[in-house]
Amino acid sequence: MARPCERLAIVGTNLLKRTSRILIEFARVYVCNCNGLRQRDVRQAIEAGATRPRDVFARHKCQAQCAKCVCDMRKMIDETCRAYAMAAE
Ligand code: FES
């Protein structure tokens, strides 16, 4: 049987694990922090025909500020194009 201080340490560790999972999930949701674009916003733009990050920004009536998100957008666009290509084969 664990002592009270050991139980408290276990509870604290579990709470930390849960909190860090939530923070990681939150960070994944946003692709563009400057414009508040989430993954679903980028996906919607890609499904509507965006083939470049510029198209994604235009679709959401904004433009690149720091451009840190451009690589992630390109990855999402490339992955979607590959998935469509595989589905077409
Ligand atoms: S994070 Fe997208 S423009 Fe800065």
Contiguous uncertain segments of 5+ residues? none
Spatial extent as radius of gyration: 20 Å
Q: How does the major sheet shape up?
A: 2 strands, antiparallel
Distance between the termini: 60 Å
Note the quaternary state here.
single chain
* Side-by-side strand order of the widest sheet: 1-2
Approximately how much beta-strand content do the residues carry?
Answer: 5-15%
- What structural category do the secondary elements indicate? mainly alpha
* CATH-defined topology of the domain at 30-89: Arc Repressor Mutant, subunit A
Query: Roughly what percent helix?
Result: 55-70%
Looking at the overall shape, the CATH architecture of the domain at 30-89 is Orthogonal Bundle
Provide the list of bound ligands, each named once.
FE2/S2 (inorganic) cluster
**Bulk shape:** elongated
Would you give an account of this structure?
- There is one protein chain.
- The protein is mainly alpha-helical.
- It has a domain at 30-89: Arc Repressor Mutant, subunit A (Orthogonal Bundle), CATH 1.10.10.
- Helices cover 69% and strands 6% of the residues.
- It is built from 4 helices and 2 strands, in the order H-E-E-H-H-H.
- It has helices spanning 4-29, 39-47, 53-59, 70-88; strands at 30-32, 37-38.
- A two-stranded antiparallel ribbon has the order 1-2.
- It is elongated and about 60 Å long.
- The model has no long low-confidence stretch (mean pLDDT 87).
